[in-house]
Automatic annotation (TrEMBL):
Keyword line: Electron transport, Iron, Membrane, Metal-binding, Mitochondrion, Mitochondrion inner membrane, Oxidoreductase, Respiratory chain, Transit peptide, Transmembrane, Transmembrane helix, Transport
Protein name: Ubiquinol oxidase
GO terms of molecular function: alternative oxidase activity; metal ion binding; superoxide-generating NADPH oxidase activity; ubiquinol:oxygen oxidoreductase activity
Pfam families membership: AOX
Cofactor note: Binds 2 iron ions per subunit.
InterPro entries: AOX, AOX_sf
Compartments, as annotated in UniProt: Mitochondrion inner membrane
Amino acid sequence: MMMTRGTSRVARLTMGGRLFSAVKGAAAEGEKFPVMGVRWRSSLTLGEKEQVNNKNSEDGGNKEVVASYWGIKGEEVKKEDGTPWKWNCFRPRETYQADLTIDLKKHHVPTTFLDKLAYWTVKSLRFPTDVFFQRRYGCRAMMLETVAAVPGMVGGMLLHCKSLRRFEHSGGWIKTLLDEAENERMHLMTFMEVSQPRWYERALVFTVQGVFFNAYFLAYLASPKLAHRVVGYLEEEAIHSYTEFLKELDKGTIENVPAPAIAIDYWRLPADSTLRDVVMVVRADEAHHRDVN
């Protein structure tokens, strides 16, 4: 038994030493390691990859850029015009043009107890958000999207498990909710290019996401109807926030900078689009999620 424990301990120390050496070597060579949320190569754009390739060429290395978290080289994807596709976080088939004609003023009047509970829960969450972010709508949007991307994933996961347990179809709702979560995540990736969060805002995301994920998980188990009502009213608040964002852009309080490249490709926007155009399509997405929930 003592020999087994000693051998196991030596094995652990050896593996730990190898891992430390790998991390140390990667850091010395300027590579990005997926540790503590550090962005790795799967999220690099084509231009950034070319810079890595150029650096490796200058150093005389023959290292190949890996476009996957699992160490597998991704397939080469091209646009319709034959030019290389420069994003690893989504593919051309996932792009679309947002429906800007959707009704932004639609509101579900709370009638039942669950409706009122969902409505006032969301309203109570708005107050601390207004106090913390005030009119910093770029950072406010990032915080909103880190929360808004959670319900679709939780709902899709629970419906997926339910479908497996009952050996029955989901009626398409699993894919609908997971697509919603992915769309909200792309909102976050877009606003990350516009406004960089401060360290305490990143810390707040950890706290809020942890609390909200578990609370929404339990709420969905107790009453899916209540959970979806909460999301519906949350999306109504998102529409209001983005409308205020647009007002600040129109007044010149917030600079109407060029649209990030990721937004232009994801929503198929014109090349000369601005931040205002991005906020418009994001607001339209939120209105769609409001109606679905």
